[in-house]
Amino acid sequence: MEDKEFYKILVQRYLSKQLTDNELEVFAQLAKEGKLDEYFLSAMNEEAGIAEADENDYNKRNKVRPLFYKIAAAAVVLIALSAGLYSYFNKPVKLSDLKSIYAKHDADPGGNKATLTLADGSKISLTDASNGQIAQQAGVKITKNANGQLVYTIAESGKKEIDYNTINTPRGGEYQINLPDGTKVWLNAASSVTFPTSFANAKNRKIKLTGEAYFEVFKNKNLPFIVVTDKQEVEVLGTHFNINSYEDEKDTRTTLLEGSVQVRRILHAANQSNIAIAHDNSKILKPGQQSRVSSQPSKDISVEVANITQVMAWKNGYFHFENDNLLTVMNQLSRWYDIQVVYEVNRTDDEFVGDIPRNVKLSEVLKVLTYGGGLHFKIQERKLIITK
């Protein structure tokens, strides 16, 4: 963070009475050194700009000093109090130290992070792995290309046993994989996909998903592509679709962008060695439709018109909120910024509308969310506390 941006945010938090104890130390030290003066002046102009003419006239008649002096006086009082409370100011202070304290009250956005688990149980951090070949097993070469994507290349192999790999993204991570058949998969945060290292001699291309992923399936009419989650099974021949199947979401949502898919409810969850799966009902989706499979077995699969912009926002690099309630918004933020959300509010039905880039710090997102008023957000370490 640039010094100017850092100073501005600190003054804004002081004026809105949002400073934590650690931030108070940072603020007082910088104010004592005179580094915040221009930012107080800027705040004065914003605060008093509308009523400038009236206030100037009143000040002339009554010899009242401008708002800046009031703010500065308050800062002096604060410094005096802080100097008596903290021995911190008797020590030499570096700006980098102050920033590190302030950084505890923000969260960086997620990034390209994932772990590959091979068939033998060994794990490879794809975040730290260099470009090029990173593993080879049973005639399959695994490489990481210049764009940070994982690519499987099949070689001739006489092995008949099926080996499975798993790629999982942590909270605050995402990753793109090119499967052995050429299918492209984008994994959202806190998600995983388990798949065979080769589809040779297979009757289908079956993989297992947890969390959320977007698929661009390589077309093969003779080899159906099947995605299994805890509640459903989706079968395609070659198409583009998104599946959201997080455990903390009440429904599993499948959204079709092009082609055709069949969604079947699973009565009994499947694992990678389960071939026979029991189903009760199914639906065929057309492009632009979204199916919902509830965790309640008594409910049928529902189909509705999809909001493609909202569904694909995560893959396209931003949050898209469209009358979403607080719980829905916080579920997305908690996974992407890897934070715990603490609700100190009685109601969570506030609705949010807008687009926010996913590559900004959490504090920038919260600024947008507070425009509507009514909610107050406070970041402490890895916790986001919400109050009215």
What does this structure look like?
The protein has 388 residues and is α+β, with helices and mostly antiparallel strands. The chain has three domains: 3-103, no CATH class; 111-310, Jelly Rolls (Sandwich), CATH 2.60.120; 317-387, Phage tail protein beta-alpha-beta fold, CATH 3.55.50.30. The protein has helices at 3-15, 21-32, 37-48, 52-62, 67-85, 95-103, 308-312, 326-337, 362-369; strands spanning 111-112, 115-117, 123-125, 132-137, 140-144, 150-154, 164-169, 173-178, 184-187, 191-196, 205-216, 225-228, 232-236, 240-245, 251-258, 261-266, 279-285, 289-294, 302-305, 318-325, 340-344, 351-357, 376-380, 383-387. The protein has a 19-stranded mixed β-sheet that branches. A three-stranded mixed β-sheet has the order 21-24-23, with no helix packed on it. Strands 20-22 form a two-stranded antiparallel sheet. A hairpin with a 2-residue loop joins strand 23 and strand 24. Helix 1 (3-15) crosses helix 2, helix 2 crosses helix 5 (67-85) and helix 3 packs across helix 5. The chain is globular, with a radius of gyration of 27 Å.
Features:
19-stranded mixed sheet, 388 residues, 3-stranded mixed sheet, globular, alpha+beta, Phage tail protein beta-alpha-beta fold, Jelly Rolls
Number of helices: 9
Percent in strands: 25-35%
The radius of gyration is 27 Å
Helix content: 25-40%
What is the CATH topology descriptor of the largest domain? Jelly Rolls
What is the end-to-end distance? 29 Å
Main β-sheet description: 19 strands, mixed
Q: Regarding CATH, which class of the largest domain?
A: Mainly Beta
CATH architecture of the largest domain: Sandwich
Overall mean confidence score, pLDDT: 79
Number of strand segments: 24
Structural class: alpha+beta
Shape: globular
The domain tally reads 3
Instruction: Detail the poorly predicted runs.
Output: 48-55, 58-95, 269-276
